[in-house]
Here is the input.
Amino acid sequence: MSAIGRIERSTALLSMAFLVESDGQQLLIWSDAFLHYVVSIQQPDWHADFDDDRQQAVATRKRLLKMAAEQRLLVADHHMPFPGLGYIESANGSFRWLPVSYQLNV
Here is the structure.
């Protein structure tokens, strides 16, 4: 691993994001910033109960979504459908989750 950087410490205790880079490849890992692959990603303005500062939480979600979509980053999130890896795509003024296949290339 050549680099790991903390992108964000959001407004909830466990909501964090890290960008991991190795050999020119990047993986964005976020924890609890998005709780559902449809609701949280397509409606980043909607609040969760654990958002301590709701305005900051919304701003953080929008920033992470924009970054992931614009840089076409592979994203890891344990709240997303199996295998928890995918991409974010801009769609109709919002975003959507595009899961990767769980098939391994051997």
Remarks:
- The chain has a mean pLDDT of 82.
- The beta strands are 3-9, 16-22, 25-31, 74-76, 85-91, 94-99.
- The longest strand covers residues 3-9.
